[in-house]
Amino acid sequence: MKTGATWTPEQLAAWLRVAVHDRDAALWVLVATTGMRRSELAGAMRDLLDLDEGVLTLEDTRVVVDGKAEDSDGKTDSSFSRTVSLDTITVAYLRHHLAMLDRERADFGTAYQENGKLFCHPDGRLIHPDTITRRFNRLVDLAEVPRIRLHDVRHTYATVALDHGEDLKVVSDRLGHANMNVTAQIYTHRSVGKDRDAADRVAGLIFGEDWELPAEPGKEDD
Questions:
Q1: For helices 9-19 and 196-207, what crossing angle results, to 10°?
Q2: What is the C-alpha to C-alpha distance for residues 169 and 130, in angstroms, rounded to an integer?
Q3: Using an 8 Å Cβ cutoff, are 193 and 53 in contact?
Q4: How many angstroms separate the CA atoms of 30 and 118, rounded?
Q5: Close Cβ partners of 149 (under 8 Å, ≥ 6 residues apart)
Q6: How many other β-carbons are positioned within 10 Å of the β-carbon of residue 15?
Q7: pTM for the whole thing?
Q8: Got the DSSP string for 103-121?
Q9: Residues 148-159: pLDDT tens digits?
Q10: 3-state class (DSSP) for residue 143
Q11: What is residue 184's predicted lDDT score, i.e. its pLDDT?
């Protein structure tokens, strides 16, 4: 597999047009519009998602150690707790996702395994990060776009954002780069909340003007 590559905005959009038909469409939209790490996607907590405010706080991660998935607090040399703003399209997909989770919980009843994660199996079981990678590769093949790593979608997001003039500090904050600790010592406050415009502008570049949003929860049959 080719490593260290990135997609063009057109290739990213082509992949998304396939990925949004997957059960976890919101996961794929989220990585495309925020550049979140795989461990952050697997570890994201539902109660740290505020769709009314359009923000997701990342505190926990789910990592792979000797082939086994383990939860971590995410506070390592390469990651730290942060809050990222979400564009309106991503919010729409996440709202649809939460409604799906609620339906699945009701369907499974007492057999449902409650864990509080934003992304999980239909019966609530924790998702293994390697499962996310395998499903990503399958969707890439279905979309017939160049094979890149899941982590390279993160690089694609950063490249698209920076190439279109987004502020380096804001992008770095959204990505959670550890070297921004040095920058954070220079500034009196972080750019949390100031990335709203960046979220909307980059999402606009990815999705374009004619993207059809998912139906609002409860209105699919209207």
A1: 80
A2: 30
A3: no
A4: 11
A5: 1, 3, 5
A6: 24
A7: 0.78
A8: HHHHHHGGG-----BSSB-
A9: 999 999 888 887
A10: helix
A11: 31
214 in Cβ contact with 92 (< 8 Å)? yes
CA 43: distance to chain centroid?
Answer: 11
Task: Return the residue matching tokens 């990135």.
Answer: 6
Dist CA 135 CA 148 (whole Å): 13
Phi, psi of 15 (to 5 degrees): -65, -40
E strands present in the chain: 49-50, 55-58, 61-65, 68-72, 82-85
Q: How far apart are CA 216 and CA 100, in angstroms?
A: 11
3-state secondary structure of 77: coil
Task: Specify whether the CB–CB gap between 141 and 22 falls below 8 A.
Answer: no
Give 218's DSSP letter: T
The residue whose two tokens read 């094979």 is 147
DSSP secondary-structure letter at 213?
P
| Alpha-carbon gap, residue 94 to 108, rounded angstroms | 21
pLDDT digits (tens, 9 = 90+) for 109-138: 999 999 999 999 999 999 999 999 999 999
Distance CA 86, CA 60 (A): 18
Q: Which domains does the chain have, with CATH numbers?
A: 9-207 (1.10.443.10)
Q: Which amino acid is at 99?
A: A
How many angstroms separate the CA atoms of 7 and 136, rounded? 14
Q: Which helix (H) or strand (E) holds 93?
A: helix 88-108
